[in-house]
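Co-fold these.
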Amino acid sequence: AQSVTQLGSHVSVSEGALVLLRCNYSSSVPPYLFWYVQYPNQGLQLLLKYTSAATLVKGINGFEAEFKKSETSFHLTKPSAHMSDAAEYFCAVESSASKIIFGSGTRLSIRP
Amino acid sequence: GAGVSQSPSNKVTEKGKDVELRCDPISGHTALYWYRQSLGQGLEFLIYFQGNSAPDKSGLPSDRFSAERTGGSVSTLTIQRTQQEDSAVYLCASSLAAGAKVNEQFFGPGTRLTVL
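Predicted complex below.
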């Protein structure tokens, strides 16, 4: 069965610092992976997705994620954090039954 | 609008009452999902509809929860005899079809359910 694990329920970085949100997956088949973001009092929206076309995936708002099969990871990064990046971030994997399994989420806080 | 809509946006009910939550997916989307997001928790999958196939109900927490999708469009999530632990934000999402290449899910704003 497919699953994802997000390490760290809360990450805090300074404005302008590197953002790194960790996600590890478990899948018996080549996975399709996603990062979603939920801004305060808003619904979830897709940041980026990996569907095996390229291991480095670029998303909206300067975020990117790299698929590393050897590490079973799909960490989300952004070189320089902005105050507007403060949100909840969810890693997700598509199961063999075509439904999306979400991680428990990581809340990102940005310090001025 | 062109997005997923949900109603009501907020619902306060008394323990033991039944509630119905509605989701209008994006027109043409054949897949529809319901999730529950409790305070400080991730998204808990509840149920998944794909076209005319039998729904995947594997995430429903108890037989008090049910959902239907009429005409392949609008969906209603029903919670009978609500309990305080049912308090959460209920999110609906739709996607064009199953399969990752087209499986980007578009989420509605959610219904915040409070059971007193």
